Amino acid sequence: MEIVIHIVTVLVVLFVVLNIAAGLIWVERRLLALWQDRYGPNRVGPLGLMQVAADTIKLFFKEDWVPPFADKGVFILAPAIVMLTVLMSFTVLPFAPGMQITDLNIGLLFVLAMSSLGVYSVVLGGWSSDNKYSLLGGLRAAAQMLGYEVFMGLALMGVVLMAGSFSLRAIVDAQSKMWFIVPQFVGFVLFLIAGAAEMRRLPFDIPEAESELVAGFHSEYSGMKFGMFFVGEYVGVVLISALISILFLGGWHGPLLPPIVWFLIKMFAFIAFFILLRAGLPRPRFDQLMSWGWKIMLPLALANLLVTGAIVLAVK
Amino acid sequence: MAWLFYVAGAVAIIATLMMLTRLNAVHALLYLIVSLLAVAIVFFVIGAPFVAALEVIIYAGAIMVLFIFVVMMLNLGRRAIQIESAWLKPGMWVGPVILAAILIAEVAFLVAGPGGPKIGAEVVGPQEVGIQLFGPYLIGVELASFLLLGALVGAYHVGVAKVKEEHGNHSDESRAVAGGDFVRAGTDRPAGSP
Amino acid sequence: MDAVWPIGLYFVLVVLLIGAMLVGSYVLGQRHDDRATGSPYEGGIVSEGSARVRFSARYYLIAMFFVVFDLEAVFIFSWAVAAKEVGWPGYWEIVIFIGVLVATLAYLWRLGALDWSGEPRRRREGKAMPQKL
Fold it and tell me: Which of C50, C95, C114 sits opposite A291 (nearest CB)?
């Protein structure tokens, strides 16, 4: 019986995550259109909802082109890595009591490890394409992700310190009285920024900056391989939003409504926030972005950690 | 769980062998990453989840990225492949392999002896590691911080020397892009200029 | 800790999914071969030379800093999870540890290693910085 529950959980999580990610393509375009005072996709199906299906079918029937000058094996591997690493992170997230694939005592480290492996997709994608713009995009992406990964982990350590565990379920349980966003507001802001940078969302989409670099590291990708980078980005947005809800907003905790509903409300609020960021912010210069990461974010994350540690120990 | 240990171990060994025999440096590094991930699984199975996570974060996620960066930066091309093929001649590796085989035989003999620990019999969580590191081993942690300080300062000075050199000789046959700095290409204009 | 095998199952399903996407796209996609199909797209300009060029050492610096700071972060991780257990002695230890880290960061900052805009900082500040780096 328990085995059946596990299998069902695995299937449900994978199915729901992929569908939310695909649905986001529609949600993002409609929301952007709303904020920019235009219609967005509204022709295919009611409210344009079938746009997602139309896009998927289109991608499948596009030419699946592997450049003759590319390093073919690595070229195909790169989009697979992005999907794999982002999707694997969902295995340790607790969505509601009992709704979790596995609770590891290194859960948070597992997520960080997967995100550190995600760097390879952009580096290898850019390198294997043998295209100068791709290479530049890939290197920029890697430099950016590396710069922001350091304090992404450090920003979360305040939460770990208060919960005393890397297990995400223990972290949610520790927030039954007070959400960590209150004592860990600095960590929350830092992680929000690092998350956007890690997922290469605007204003951190410099690696793809279409006005400078064609399409960055995926210039040479077509068909479903391009689609996989695309889906990977949206799954990444879902992942970061889910993580913020779990780590800082008490996960499933909330009055009246069932736990999973609370979780989804929080998660979608952050998804909408990330889309709003894209609608509202310009793109900074690459060197500014790198300097911000090292000069402002990293010292702030360290200071936050030391202050949190002193307070926690003093209260105890 | 024991079978998982042996499968992961076998993957690690095969991936390492593949890494050694690849001629293309990036392909070799990819196999090395697979090998490190397999070693992480081995650590996880024998009851050291924290070390497993660190193996992925530090070795597979950081040091290998550095390696790939360096390989991509140097872009040695065909000449490197020729050198690699020269290294793969039997004369180069037979001697070390025999010595290593003797060592493996010794280790196998010791491990096969009675009273070895069971796989995954005891799980050491991240918290215990932290308590040990910041309790009895505090001097080690502080020494590590000084070591890392040295690494950072050293890396910077070595790197800057290289940048200078590149600026000096970008007009000759070196294949560096003009100015030798891809980052600068789009970012060194004064703000506001078209 | 729960059973770990569901992660394995999930992993297998994800790999199958990725395989299906790659194969499906390969089977369903159209094929064509025109004059310029096999050339790289570099902004519409005919590609010149190979993309196998050498880079500035600046990227090496970024990767190197990342590795070292990641290692320091890992020590901080292991303190954070055990902070309540190791108490004040552990706290002062991590203060020293982070102090050394911040000192290094300040040193690099002063040398201009954290400016990615191309020129080292000494160029702009004139005599303020030592000339021999």
Answer: C114
C15 in contact with A at a CB cutoff of 8 Å?
Answer: yes
| Fold topology of B2-117 | Four Helix Bundle (Hemerythrin (Met), subunit A) (1.20.120)
Sign of the torsion angle spanned by Cα atoms A249, A94, A193, A174: positive
Q: Determine the pLDDT at residue A210.
A: 61
Interchain proximity A14–C43, CB inside 8 Å: no
Cis peptide leading into A203, omega within 30 of 0? yes
C89 touches chain A (CB under 8 A): no
Residue type, A313: L
pLDDT at A193 over 90: no
Which of A166, A210, A292, A305 to probe by mutation at the B interface, max B CB count within 10 Å?
A: A166
Sorting pLDDT into bands at 50, 70 and 90, what band is B35?
very high
**Residue C65 covered by a domain:** yes
Say how far apart CA B31 and CA B39 lie, in whole Å.
12
**Does the beta-carbon distance from B72 to A120 stay under 8 Å?**
no
The answer to whether residue A212 neighbours chain C at the CB level (below 8 Å) is no
B54 shares contact with chain A (CB less than 8 Å): yes
The count of CB pairs under 8 A between chains A and C is 202
Give the pLDDT confidence of A137-149 residue by residue, as tens digits.
777 777 778 778 8
Cα–Cα distances (Å) from B30 to A123, A225, B61, in that order, read 12, 20, 12
Classify residue C9: in a domain, yes or no.
no
B95-153 tens-digit pLDDT: 888 999 999 999 888 877 776 666 666 788 888 888 888 888 888 888 888 898 888 88
ipTM for this model: 0.86
Q: What is the 3-state secondary structure (H, E, C) of A273-314?
A: HHHHHHHHCCCCCHHHHHHHHHHHHHHHHHHHHHHHHHHHHH
Shortest Cα distance, chain A CAs vs residue C123, angstroms? 16
Residue ranges of domains in chain A: 2-315
The chain-wide mean pLDDT, for chain A, equals 84
CA dist list (Å): C83 to A159, B129, C87: 12, 12, 6
On the question of pLDDT at B14 being above 90, the answer is yes
Residue C13 lies in a domain: no
Instruction: Return the pLDDT at C34.
Output: 77
CA A128/CA A142 separation, integer angstroms: 14
Could you tell me which chains touch chain B, where touching means 3 or more CB pairs under 8 A? A, C
* Every domain of chain B and the residues it spans: 2-117
Probe site for chain C from A224, A228, A300 (most C CB atoms < 10 A): A224
A-chain residues near B190 (CB < 8 A): none
Mean pLDDT (chain B) is 76
pLDDT value at position A140?
78
What is the model's pLDDT at position B63? 87
Structure confidence by residue, pLDDT tens digits, A79-133: 899 899 999 999 989 888 878 888 888 889 999 999 888 888 888 888 887 777 7
Assess whether pLDDT exceeds 50 at residue B185: no
* Residue B61 contacts A, CB cutoff 8 Å: yes
| Structural domain count of chain C | 1
User: Which residues in chain B are contacts of C129 at CB distance < 8 A?
Assistant: none
Is B29 within 8 Å of B71 (Cβ atoms)?
Answer: yes
Cβ contact, residue pair B58, C70, below 8 Å: yes
Domain of residue C79, residue span = 55-114
Answer yes or no: is C89 within a domain. yes
Q: Which of B57, B58, B138 sits opposite C93 (nearest CB)?
A: B138
- CATH number for the domain that contains residue C89: 1.20.58.1610
